[in-house]
Amino acid sequence: MYVPIRGDKNDIIGVAEAYVNVADVAGFTRAIQTVLWIGSFTSLVLIFLLLRYVFRKQDAKIVAHSEELSGVIEESPIGIYTVAMDGTVETFNPAMARESCIYSASEIIGKNIFALEYFRNSGLDILIREGLLGNAFRREVEIPTPSDNAKKTYHFYYGVPLKDADGEIDSLLLMSEDITERKELESQVREYTKGLEEKVGERTKDIEEAKAKAEALLASLGEGMIATDKDGKLIALNPVAEKMLDLKSEAVIGKLAVDVIEAIDENNIDIPNEDRILNIALKGEPATLNTMRYKKKDDGYFPVAVTWTPVMLGGVVAGAVGIFRDITKEKELEKARGDLLSLASHQLRTPLSGTKWLIETLKKGIHGPLTPGQTEYIDELYKINERMTGLVHDMLGVLRLEGGEAKTKKEDTSTKNLIETVFETMRGVAESKQVAIRAREDTDYTINTDPLLLQNILESLVGNAINYSESGREVTLHVEQKPLWLIFSVKDSGIGIPKGEQQQIFERFYRASNAKTFDTRGSGLGLYIASMLAKKIGAHLSFESEEGKGNITLINIV
Amino acid sequence: MNHVLVVEDEDFLVRALKDNLISEGHSVSVATDGEQVFEELKKKTPSLILLDLLLPKKNGFDVLKEIRQSPEWQHIPVVILSNLGEDSEIKRALELGANDYFVKSQHPIQEVIEKVREYLEGKGSTKVGV
Predict the structure, then answer these.
(1) A120-135 exposure pattern, b = at least 16 Cβ within 10 A, e = fewer
(2) Domains of chain B, start order
(3) Which one Pfam family would you cite for this protein (chain B) (predicted)?
(4) In terms of CB atoms within 10 Å, which end of chain B has fewer, N or C?
(5) pLDDT tens, A283-341?
């Protein structure tokens, strides 16, 4: 071997010749090669053993996992199966078998899914093909009924394409959940909701119709209507009320009715809140009718007839309803009627009283004595005048009663005192007719009635009994307490009333046929007035009579 | 002799009253309308006034009111003789201070004359004779 010799400047300045023992080098090299070969072999064996150990471990884990997974899939309540690219069913878990109504999964594994009726009929085959092309899906699938007896079912499907190590799709994982029950429930809920909606719709329509009817009714009501809640706050006014009171509902709803509707009594005195009939109604008192004056906004007061009725719900006052009517015209008519009556009575009575007093004066002989013939004539004139006076009195009484003017009172009245007063008044007539009047017994009862009206009735009946009795006869008055009634009976032994005419005896201007022959003074109004007065005090008049045997007139009074 | 003022617009009633009162020994003056009453009162103060209600010029209610408000005449008994016979009219007259009230057609003139006598003898008491 030659080796170059270099100078200071690294330039070759010479060549040296060297000699090496090749046998020694070759032996050394072989020794080294052997060592290296053994070392490599050992390392490889060790690495192999290590890897084997690791892979075995890994395999065991994978197997364990795989077993675990298989167990989960087997036990899963959700149907799970896989299909290979060519449509072969690779796995099929029991849940899926149940869902598909297949006895066992083994019946289907290995078969081509596209050939199975179940999948074709439900359209699942199309979905599976799509899935195998790489399109994952989640879809509700309707499974047609397999037989006439079975019902169709619903399933929710997930399709997930599975890829191999190269990323190529090699199968499709399908998961299915039976949602038939849920669908049925949903359907039931939908039906129920629909039914409910229909019912609500119908009810709403009914309510709207009823509301429209009520509104139309209230609007057409000729009377004012006000409604309040239990606290007396306004909740409704109909158009008539709005117009009469000149109020707008929207401005007054929610306010206290007694504040909004100002009222005074008929004597123009303010009515205290506690006496307002609305507040009385709100205490649950039954309906009360009253006349008073309501205020029309900016236009003074006008007379009204008002009724307030409590609205009871479950025995509790929930509010009140007031109905009122403008009675201005009635009041004017009432006044006109009163004025006419007053004037008519005055104008009719004045000449009668003049004749009466002049005849009385003449009879007194102030202007000299009268001859018997003159006296006779004068007496006749006087009778005619008295009859006329009685007729006018009765007719005005009828007009007054028919106009409803006479107001009734309620007072505790002693029947004994009452009878005494009647007898006192009638004594003169009885004496002049020579008819005795007496009470049959002394018993005293207390009766709550209008004493003056009852006295008028008794006077009328006793007067009638006297007038239609012949002289020397007797008229008796008898009072009897019955459980429900107090009965006054006036008995005479006069001419009686023919049976066929007894029904008409209380009619206006009716006079019994035999009365006309007996006495000509009656106006035919006496018993009519008595029966009208009786009605006013809640009494009832009746007759027991037979022609020629006298009458018993009965007054039944509560 | 007692003096009685008759206030009445109907001649025939004046005649009857006057004849009866004079025959009883009273002196009588007559007013035929509501204003004449006060002229007569000024001429001679009566012991009693018989007062009709419906009168020309001034009605009996106003006359009565004026009499009861006058210091000179308020003490004089006033008996109303009227053919107005409604309860409201009687009540109003009594409230205004009438001593008695007769509805003429319903009472003999003798009853009126006796009532006048009662008042003039100082025995008259307020009672409505209707």
Answers:
(1) eebebbebbebbbeee
(2) 3-121 (3.40.50.2300)
(3) Response_reg
(4) N
(5) 888 766 778 888 887 778 888 888 888 888 888 888 999 888 888 888 888 778 777 77
